[in-house]
Prior knowledge:
Layout: E1 3-13, E2 25-26, E3 30-33, E4 36-41, H1 43-57, E5 67-70, E6 77-80, H2 91-96, E7 98-100, E8 108-110, E9 114-116, E10 119-121, E11 129-132, H3 135-143, E12 153-156, E13 159-168, E14 175-180, E15 185-187, E16 192-198, E17 201-205, E18 208-210, E19 215-220, E20 223-233, E21 236-243, H4 245-261, E22 266-267, E23 270-271, E24 276-284, E25 296-298, E26 301-303, H5 305-309, E27 319-322, E28 336-337, H6 340-346, H7 351-355
Parallel strand pairs: 2-12, 27-28
Antiparallel strand pairs: 1-13, 1-24, 3-4, 4-10, 5-6, 7-8, 9-13, 10-13, 11-12, 14-21, 15-16, 16-17, 18-19, 19-20, 20-21, 22-23, 24-27, 25-26
Amino acid sequence: MKNIAATIIFDGAALNRDEKIGGNIQSIKKLNVEGSLKSFISRPAIRHYLFNTLVKAHPEDWKPSKVVERGSGEKKVLQFDITQDDILSSAELDAFGYMFTIEKEMSITRKAPVGITKAISIGNYNQDMVFYANHDLVQRANQDGLNITPNPFQREEHQSLYKLSFTIDTEIFGKDVWVVRNKPKYDSKNKELSIEIENKNLKKIKNAINNSNDTYEIEENNKKIGTIKIKSINNAYKITFELDDAIKKKRIKQILDAIHNGLVSHSSGEDNTIVPLFMIAGEVTVPSPVFHSYLDVVGGKIIGLNDCLNNSWLSGDISFIHKTDRLKADIDNDRITYDWSEFIGQLGLGEKICQS
């Protein structure tokens, strides 16, 4: 599989709040871009919305990974617990990466195969400020004989088109490497592989079938989900996790479908609409958001499409474009398709993969 890049433009609101500007004034995240003030939705917020969408759309495949508090005193941090989950059992760890710190040793980290940019507004932020108050609750309380006055607060608001890009590094997706000091132990009777991550901190992997001295097939519900290979290197052991190829493709297709159809986004009591009015996606040699810088909206029309399609990192026979009546995108190029199923098929992620 080639790597994948996608950029969408959606009509949304800056609901990713920043710190309060004194009193009860809630601010939004902002950037100064070439002298213009833009609002934006941060990468962690988009990651949260994408993952929540996947959990709701595919609850059996995408489940929140377990977390653990590590460290002591002021150095305590909250991290994903890789003693309980790994990329084979957790699609979240596979797609979005993690860090697991080990005292006095190199941490076990995983770069996120799914890259996400900020969602930056195309329109300028014009200092819109809105007053709100809890009038409904106050009215109910006063009807019950209480003497309550409203508690007003202010919010910065911005409604605009936003540009957002994703990349998927298919070489990293479905593969993870750990380095540990002690040799993993295998219980052949219980088919359990034990990995000592740090002193007395064991990860136990059940349903591990030893096919050779250094390779184990991992099963779930009597189906193979991946393999674990162990190799001795110097004074340590390299452990390689590899997800079953069909499951890897299924996860990637689910991510792409979520981006294509729209994300669940709820913040400050409001729903946002991260639903593409325009989308371009393609196979790329290098997992870089190659379309992001070229695209803009001028007078309700997408500009920069020819520049996108002339980027040398594009490697597929066709790229996908989704356009709507709201945003015009005039282009005549043999290298594009408006058929999502055709594009997904070119990636090798057809319906059979989704249903497997």
